Amino acid sequence: xxxxxxxxxxxxxxxxxxxxxxxxxxxxxxxxxxxxxxxxxxxxxxxxxxxxxxxxxxxxxxxxxxxxxxxxxxxxxxxxxxxxxxxxxxxxxxxxxxxxxxxxxxxxxxxxxxxxxxxxxxxxxxxxxxxxxxxxxxxxxxxxxxxxxxxxxxxxxxxxxxxxxxxxxxxxxxxxxxxxxxxxxxxxxxxxxxxxxxxxxxxxxxxxxxxxxxxxxxxxxxxxxxxxxxxxxxxxxxxxxxxxxxxxxxxxxxxxxxxxxxxxxxxxxxxxxxxxxxxxxxxxxxxxxxxxxxxxxxxxxxxxxxxxxxxxxxxxxxxxxxxxxxxxxxxxxxxxxxxxxxxxxxxxxxxxxxxxxxxxxxxxxxxxxxxxxxxxxxxxxxxxxxxxxxxxxxxxxxxxxxxxxxxxxxxxxxxxxxxxxxxxxxxxxxxxxxxxxx
Length: 438
What we know:
Elements: H1 4-10, E1 14-20, E2 26-33, E3 41-47, H2 48-54, H3 58-99, H4 115-150, E4 154-160, E5 165-169, H5 171-175, H6 179-182, H7 196-209, E6 213-222, E7 226-238, E8 244-253, H8 255-269, H9 279-289, E9 298-307, H10 309-316, H11 318-335, E10 341-346, E11 349-354, H12 361-375, E12 378-380, E13 383-385, E14 388-397, H13 403-419, E15 425-427, H14 429-437
Parallel strand pairs: 14-15
Antiparallel strand pairs: 1-2, 2-3, 4-5, 4-8, 6-7, 7-8, 9-11, 9-14, 10-11, 12-13
Helix pairs in contact: 2-3, 3-4, 10-11, 11-12
């Protein structure tokens, strides 16, 4: 009779063997492996004395006992296989249902005598419930975004790692352009030319530096409202190795907020009556000129005071006076180049900053043009209003003198022009001395 260890070595699935109990009693065993459950074996043992007492012939007794043990083992193994494999098969079916994101309840779990399987059943049910809840939340979130996109308030997009758009939801509703035309780089053609460099730089910087998010405020052309401000936002999605895989993001309509912001900013830095830059913006302009990149640049500051404006304002009324100031602003801008700046300091006082002068004589040429332009009568509300202008000219090199000193010299030159008879321009005394020495 083989031993249990010998049977294990040959991998027998059924058979019999003898063994001695702890008390020295010989016992005959029959065994059978449970099908589909590796490592599970049903073993039945019968004391040898019982077999010997029932059968006089030891050989017949042993053979019958072995046969009984094997039959019992086979029957029990079949029963145990059904009690163990059925719950495991059910568990596999339930796992496949969870993995396939199947809706509804999971397949029923049969009763089992193994407590660990009951615990696994409950863990499966809890996981299924949590995944279903998260799927519902995600679906609801997606519906919200799609609803916003459909009304044209937001565009959602997905692009490859190079920035080529693959999907765009809500683009047609927002701009009037077909979604197909916006794919790839098509949507970029709708970005305002002035904003495109900023958007391009933002994306390139994010990609080069590995920044996970990118944002920029740009104008997008629509068929209905022409240019509309949007907030471009993108987030980088990385692969398992942490490398950029794709981009996802939104284009949010911020036109009302952005225009209000720009209007408030314009009011803070511009004169409400004429639309010209005010003292605050003029001071910022000087700070920009005083940056190292502009050091040594030949410039000039002109202070302008309107002659006889008070008389015109008193004669024709404040409404005509306000209209007169607006017309003065228009004429000043017509005299200047694109890079020059005209500002209203307050009342009937204005200032002009000339930049990048090839020679100082150009500043006197502009001063003469201003005097001439403002001496021509203004036709306002049926009245021919005659005024004039006195101009003080203070040439300077950017960064070469303090702003306070420069303003003092321009004001002194203006005072000299008024003292000499008005409706004329005058240099600062330091500028005149410098010219005479030259």
